[in-house]
Amino acid sequence: MRRTIKPFLAGLAVIFLGSFVAAFFNLYDTFPHIDKIFHIASGFIIAWFFSNLWEDNFKGFNRFQRVIMFMALAGLIGFFWEVLEYSTSTSLFTHYQLIRHYFYGGDLTDTLGDLLADVLGGAIFGLL
What are the residue ranges of helices labelled H in the chain? Predict the structure, then answer.
């Protein structure tokens, strides 16, 4: 389990430093697609985490199969993140502006771009 600590901490750093610092300094307004960089990094980190967690299970796969698995895992986790973002746009969270500020999702184009970036990050990890 110790092998999973580094990717876990890297993931927290991406979430906190990326999302919160970018929101605090209004970087989302300055660089409209900066979140795509965070999603690529997140996809990479998700693949890294599962690579360390299930290292023995991945030994039987060839490189192409591992890339596909990492892309699928990054896409799956990204999907749940996007569901979280979408859920904050419901009326349930109208009184919780702090939550909405950090997790508020965009439109369909933004969501699909985020998912593509997650999958791309998983592919990059698999190819390296």
Answer: 5-13, 22-24, 27-30, 34-53, 55-58, 63-87, 97-103, 108-127
